[in-house]
Specification:
The structure is a homodimer.
Chain A (H helix, E strand, L loop, with lengths): L2 H11 L4 H10 L9 H13 L3 E3 L13 E3 L1 H12 L10 H12 L4 H26 L7 H34 L1
Antiparallel strand pairs in A: 1-2
Chain A binds a DNA duplex through helix 2 and helix 3.
DNA sequence: ACGACCATGTAAACAGTTACATGATTTA
DNA sequence: TAAATCATGTAACTGTTTACATGGTCGT
């Protein structure tokens, strides 16, 4: 039940059409809650039917026409309720860790290549986050909004840092094993 | 497509019945790939139909009777293939980060309580992992199997360490904001 | 023999992914 | 005017979660 709330947040930050939302999910929001355009259109339809958002006037809803959506008071209230509600952390689900555990039983052939590939991907993501930090959070600016958003970005940076370190360590272990 | 492989791994480590598997998923495997008993029974049925596992003889398959499953050569081969195959890391999906981003727009009321609650849960999980490390990986033992499994446990420990640190930092920020 | 729990399962709802369809606008 | 791509959508499939059902075993 998080996709509608991700969309409400994005629309409150800035009213958008379906495609604009899709683009923004590819960039910022998607860094911790990804969604495809199909999911987004479906959810926009539901949210509109429920009266949480509405299409801005002046646009005819023909196919291939942009529709801009904005959040209604009901939607904002629902988002506030959800944000403040108590929710349990989801247990971790990670395929690479599962594969390593499997490798302990069926052998490590072939997995080292993918560890190296993942390392490169995580290093790339880390570099991207650090670029964003330099660009959007220069020292000095610290409105409450800035600090909250910076906190979220820090989580992304620290997570990618963890993965690069762990993968580096894992690859070293493999070098010693063989 | 990871649940069947998680089950194959668990069954290779030790042939088990559905309920035993469920218990083991609650403990070790579930730390990075959780599953409910419904998922497990359904998947066991599929894997048996595909000839990747079989019920050990000497058990009549009546309702309420334990059925022990073991992995067949086909299943082991499939697991080895999957383990070695190239797979992209799944993008992060984290509700707490999403909620913080929403809080930047609709206000932070109520979320701090849940940050503190999550901190306690992550500290508890971290303590559990460190207990397991002390018990199962004393210094000295280092067969290839041990090293791989220890590597996986290290990932769990480092991830929980990250969360406790990040949450602590987040709570400090909130203290300064208000 | 009754209640608690063990063990296996079914059904339905919900969420996410992949593949495809269709009209509108831009550009060569 | 044809091709590319923009923008919105549908359909089918896969995977996950939640709620419920059913028979067996064990302790009192």
């Amino acid at each position: 039940m998080s996709l509608p709330h991700a969309i409400l947040t994005a629309l409150l930050e800035k009213p958008s059409s379906g495609l604009e939302l899709t683009r923004r999910f590819d960039r910022s929001i998607g860094y911790f809650w990804s969604a495809t355009h199909q999911q987004i259109y479906r959810e926009l339809g539901k949210l509109e039917a429920e009266g949480q958002i509405r299409a801005l006037a002046s646009e005819q809803p023909a196919r291939g026409q942009k529709k801009q959506y904005e959040v209604l008071p009901t939607g904002r209230a629902e988002l506030a309720r959800w944000t403040a509600s108590s929710q349990d952390p989801k247990p971790l689900r990670d395929t690479m860790l599962l594969r390593l555990r499997a490798a302990a039983v069926v052998g490590t052939d072939g997995i080292e290549t993918d560890l190296r590939r993942h390392l490169v991907l995580h290093q790339r993501q880390l570099a991207e986050y650090e670029e964003i930090e330099k660009r959007d959070f220069p020292p000095g600016r610290d409105s409450p909004q800035d600090r909250l958003q910076h906190l979220v970005l820090r989580a992304g940076i620290d997570l990618e840092t963890f993965w690069t370190q762990w993968l580096t360590h894992a690859i070293e272990e493999f070098a010693e094993l063989s």
